[in-house]
Every structure is written in structure tokens, then in C-alpha cells.
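sry for the spam today, last one i promise. C-alpha cells for design, 241 residues
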């Protein structure tokens, strides 16, 4: 019997209509890519590997739209248990309780590897190894989204969080919000596994060093300049051998 009990993590993602809408935007580019892959695959299922899948919501939103063969990777034991309880009865669902650096080499080639709002929560030296492992696996494409935590966007997000009663600004002290908005990350503690101190431009260079970035989108709207975007979205492909 599946467990649909909502966790605190999930409640935070739908704190209000705006927060829920912003979180939902991350799936749109995945839909567009899978529509293209589905046409190319014909009758063959689309193989999807989801790094940092949490409760495997991506499986839930894709499974009704596409013919997929989904594997999630998650290190949090309670998230793994919740995902297995909800979706373990589906023959096209599996989840690996391990780190991506260890799990990816054993999973084989996928049509798409996804990491949505995940890599900012992993120590940066491990992110480098994950990106290298993705590149070595040579998937059809790699999709990653991360929050913008530098430039004026941080002011917009943290002030908006305070005014709405949301919790994201609590990670920062207000002087840290100020300096992050001016790109002065040396005035903040080194980035760990949260949002504070994360620099998406570093991730862009790491991905670019290992793969070819074919799209760099901004969320919630593609026309936003990066300093005002809430998240950035990478689509990368393997470089020619």
C-alpha cells in the first residue's frame, strides 16, 4: 500500500501558491526534452536517471505523460523509504539508496540524467565527481537546475521570503544577504550544503569542462537576465568522442 503522507520538505515546496508555482517551473524543460526523445525513441521507453530524487516526484509527473524507465538516486534514507512506498509497485520505477558518484557507474547509459535543485546541496568536491561520472556515462543529455544565490536575485528572494512568512531567508544573516547581492561571496562563509554562498557560475564552468552546454535557461522566465533569475537551468550533452 502506497504512503502519500506529505512530509515537511514537501509542505515547504508548496508553502503558498507562488512557491508552489516556482517549484513546478523546473519540470517544463524536462517535458520538452522528453517529448523530443520520445519521438526519436519510437516504442522504446525513455531511460531517466534522477540524481537527488528525494521523494521521486519527477517519476510521478513524468509517468503519466511518457513511457519511461526511471531510476532515482538518493542518499536520504527517509526519502528513499517514502519513494519506495509510493511508487515501488510500478515495474518501471527503481531507486538506489547511495551517492551519485557510486551509483552512476553501475547504472549504464541513460537517455537523460536529471539533477533538479540538487547539486547546491552537495559538497562542491563531490559535485565535481558527479559531473565527471555523468560525462563518463555519456547520457543523451544532462539536465540540471540550481538556485541563483548571487546578485540582486538574492535580495528579491530573501526579502520576498520574509514578507510572505516563508523560511528560505532564515539560512542567511541580513548582512550576508546584502553582500551576496553584491557578488561579494568572500564576505560569506564558504558554501557547504545549503543555498548560502553557492555560485551557479562555478557549476557552469564545471559542466562546461566535461560536457557541452547546449542550453542555459533562466527560471521562472527565460527572458530574465541571470542577476534577476531565481534559478538557472543547464542542458548539456556529451562532447564528441
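last one done:
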Amino acid at each position: 500500500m502506497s504512503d502519500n503522507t506529505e512530509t515537511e520538505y514537501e509542505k515547504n515546496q508548496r508553502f503558498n501558491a507562488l512557491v508552489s508555482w516556482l517549484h513546478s517551473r523546473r519540470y517544463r524543460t524536462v517535458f520538452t526534452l522528453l517529448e523530443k526523445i520520445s519521438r526519436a525513441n519510437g516504442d522504446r521507453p525513455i531511460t531517466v536517471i534522477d540524481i537527488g530524487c528525494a521523494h521521486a516526484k519527477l517519476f510521478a509527473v513524468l509517468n503519466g505523460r511518457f513511457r519511461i524507465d526511471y531510476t532515482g538516486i538518493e542518499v536520504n534514507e527517509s526519502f528513499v523509504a517514502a519513494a519506495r512506498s509510493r511508487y515501488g509497485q510500478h515495474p518501471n520505477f527503481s531507486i538506489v539508496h547511495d551517492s551519485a558518484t557510486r551509483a552512476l557507474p553501475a547504472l549504464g547509459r541513460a537517455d537523460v540524467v536529471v539533477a533538479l535543485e540538487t547539486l547546491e546541496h552537495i559538497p562542491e568536491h563531490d559535485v565535481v565527481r558527479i559531473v565527471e561520472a555523468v560525462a563518463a556515462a555519456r547520457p543523451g543529455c544532462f539536465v540540471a537546475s540550481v538556485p541563483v544565490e548571487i546578485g540582486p536575485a538574492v535580495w528579491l528572494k530573501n526579502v520576498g521570503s520574509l514578507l510572505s512568512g516563508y523560511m528560505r531567508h532564515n539560512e542567511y544573516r541580513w548582512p550576508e544577504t546584502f553582500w551576496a547581492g553584491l557578488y561579494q561571496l568572500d564576505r560569506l562563509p564558504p558554501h557547504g550544503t545549503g543555498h548560502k554562498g553557492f555560485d551557479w557560475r562555478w557549476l557552469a564552468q564545471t559542466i562546461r569542462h566535461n560536457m557541452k552546454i547546449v542550453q542555459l535557461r533562466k527560471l521562472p522566465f527565460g527572458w530574465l537576465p541571470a542577476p534577476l533569475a531565481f534559478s538557472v537551468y543547464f542542458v548539456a550533452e556529451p562532447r564528441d568522442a
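Confidence is low (pLDDT under 50) at residues 10-16. ok im logging off now
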